[in-house]
Amino acid sequence: MQNKGLIKLFAILFGLVSIYQLSFTFIANNVESKAEEFAKSSISESVENYAEKRDVKVQNYLDSIAAEPVFAGITYATAKQKELNKGLDLKGGINVILQISVPDLLRGLANNSKDPKFNKALQEASQARANSQDTYLELFFQAFNNIEGASLASPNVFGTRALADEIDIDMTNNQVQPIIRRKINESITSAFEVLRERIDKFGVTQPNIQRLGESGRILVELPGAKDISRIKNLLQSTAQLEFWDVYQAREFQQFIVEADQVVANALNIEEQEVKDSTSTETEDLDELLSSSEDSTDVSKTNPFLSLVQNVGPGQGPVLATFAIKDTAEVNSYLKMPQVRNLIPADKKYVKFAWGKPVNDSELIDLYAIKGNRNDEPQLSGSVITDAQQTYDQVGRVAVSMQMDGRGAKIWENMTGRASQQGTQIAIVLDNTVYSAPGVSSGAITGGRSEITGDFSIQEGQDLANVLRAGKLPASADIVQSEIVGPSLGQEAIDSGINSFIIALVLVLIWMIVYYGKAGLYADIALVVNILFIFGVLSGIGAVLTLPGIAGIVLTIGISVDANVLIFERIREEIQRGKTQIDAIKDGFKSALSSILDANVTTGLTGIILLTFGTGPIKGFATTLLIGILTSLFTAIFITRLLIDGGGKKGKSLPFSTGLTKNLFKNIDIEFLKKRKVTYIISAALIILSVGSLFVNGLNQGVDFVGGRTYTVRFDQNVNPTELEQELIAVLGSAEAKTYGSNNQLKVTTNYKIDTQGSEIDKEIQEKMYQALKSYLPEGTTYKEFSVEGGNNETEKFGVMSAIKVGPTIANDIKTASFYAIFGSLFVVFLYILIRFRRWQFSLGAVVAVAHDVLIVLGAFSLLYGLMPFSLEIDQAFIAAILTVIGYSLNDTVVVFDRIREYFNEHTSWNMQKIIDKSVSSTISRTINTSLTTLVVLIAIFIFGGDSIRGFMFALIIGVVVGTYSSVFIATPVMFDTVKKKGIDLTDKSKKDEEEDETA
Questions:
Q1: Which residues contact 565 (CB under 8 A, 6 or more apart)?
Q2: pLDDT tens digit string along 715-730?
Q3: Angle between the N-to-C axes of helices 807-836 and 839-863, in degrees from 0 to 180, rounded to the nearest 10
Q4: How many Å separate Cα 829 from the centre of its chain?
Q5: Which end of the chain is more exposed for a tag (fewer CB within 10 A), N or C?
Q6: DSSP secondary structure letter of residue 95
Q7: Strands across the sheet containing 93-100
Q8: Where are the alpha helices (H) located in 870-910, listed in sequence order?
């Protein structure tokens, strides 16, 4: 092998980078473990609500040391930002897909038009959406164009006064459509910005929010989120843009001083010189703060004032500036009844609100808003018709906005009053003050105004998006959600790690038992491969999920397969009488083609899975693809370096042990003579599978039919049939099945699945609670039962996880799954056709894969009511099917590669002999790889947790039938089609090259 030094250098650097990337995860985990130990030692279990108080203690601890170096100058904050991301199923939290209502957006743009043609098109588009992959907007345009005489530019549709600058009444429908598309896209972008701003408030590390194509859907993932109910409400509520008058800072300076004393008294803190510090009403707040700094313990004598970082100017709207981490404490002080009683009667409706933090700043401003009895703003964001990021007269970034007629009049009054009094107007979005500009040029007329401030271009664009979002008339409905309680997440981590370690140990031992010292070198390469995988995952910021762990463990099988192919080739070369050095050289060279072909076919299915999959399935595909690349590198280069080093200077390097030396040696089986028997066996299995599919069907999960699924755990074993009847009585339709252990059920219902809103989710859980209350420990409250109320330390029973899939998105998932399966078959057919240059090879491979898929489907159809674990057809099952396709093709391609090789080497043999000899020569590799992979899959199946047991069951069946079909289906089908046509399978390109060299 050439360039060994370069490969060694690259491998060492790659390893060091991987270790560096993973070090952040180790540092963050170590600090968090110390925080949890500190919380447990500080708050005992005898304290009421100890779990919640421990969470607060942990967070305070982490906040206090976030900026302190932990190791080699790395702080906890840095380590947390760069650690390996854990998915929802490992960390708990919430994952939702929000559907921004495009029909509502269209109605808003049409000013809630009553035009019958317009409303007919909306209705037809809604009906067509259920069976179409087109976006709602495109379906609306199609429906509208089909209505005779319908004009989008009509004054009764989009030719309104608000859109008069862009849409002329004489425009055709084709001319109006791009404008409407842009407007809809702007509204969805605005909704995205609003959601992103809201998510930043949740305090969740590593949140993920992204738009899903042009569908109007937004994916929100919040691993580790605990206040699930609040999050769901905030995600679905429409943006609240408001304009309020604000008080001047000087009007509340004395209030803050007095509040400080009241808070100190209420907290029973011994004050030092409180009387001196507050006796003079005219004493300046700045002096109080400076004097308080001399106190021995400011936080005790002045609990409120000690939190103030800066005092706002008396003529400005900012009362004071605080640290962001102290906002919760400040809020609690301001809400105290004793503090509220200090507010003068003419200011009793005051509302305190926080400003928008400056980027990379730890500080935040506090404002006092002039509220009223009805808690209604002087002006709401519904009056904004447009907002754009612009520049003012001196070139500063600004935001211009346009209001409708009603808003323009109110705005004129507000700005006129602010100009006369020298006060400001607060622009508030979702209770956050984005800006509080003053008005220096008198009342603003016409409804068009400009907001200036210290904005960057990005901030100006964001504010414009926020202002536009204020008038967003569309709801954001949760069409798909997954909520995982923290206890279930921790169990998933434990089971995933256990399955990973057990599978790895078994494979490492097997390789040594089978290949001796060479197997030890393969094990070293395998461990390096795993290091690379985790390093890459951490470096690219990928999310590790439970299916992702399964993908990594499956990668162990892929890595082993590559080494098995190489070692079997080397053993063959040694048996032919070659020296060890030549055998190693030729073995690696001969195996390379099969390794590449096998991994490319598996990689193609992984790419399709990544393209069509969502959520955890993408995690599986990501780790699988990364694993394929790292496995190729370690098998081809790292193993080669170790093997060359172990066999240098004439040292003997055996590739077998005493037990395996003669295993599978001199096998010569006439496989093709048995093909009629195997055809009959396969035909019987397929008939049985198809018959079951027609009679029993498949147990489709909520991914494909819509509905809600809950994992409910009890403190004792329960009878699922008995509980199912209890649930049907309150929900109308429900299915309860044992899920894992006998004290855990999976409950599925389609109750009110077409009705959106978090109140429906709460209603269903309340009904479940009432139905199952008698089976729960005495005194169990609804909060303890619900998935939103669970806690990592106390959640032993109740709803452990919840999944919801709306009917529309279920149809999309089903269609995408259909495309994924048939797309992968088509792509693989083309690849094998290009690679082997004969369609008969492609046909044999596709027939074998179709055979495998049908048998797996049949097994799930026959056994779903008999097995003690879930055999639902969901996205995870589709991932399993695609993996089975990849594995089956992997096996088949290896066999086909050997057949092609033998056709070129043994030109005097007849076709049947060549094929039988080819298959016989690969039996050792086939059985070895299959057994190794099965050991890995069985380990995950047994120890990997309930949530992926069905997924693993499909893979186990797939590996068994895939191994069988590559020998007894793919090869015979290819042989029969070739034999019938009398086609020569010799590689013509190689033959031509040889003839040219001879000439």
A1: 591, 594, 595, 598, 894, 925, 929
A2: 888 888 888 888 888 8
A3: 150
A4: 31
A5: C
A6: E
A7: 208-212, 217-223, 93-100, 476-484, 798-805, 707-713, 741-749, 735-739
A8: 875-905
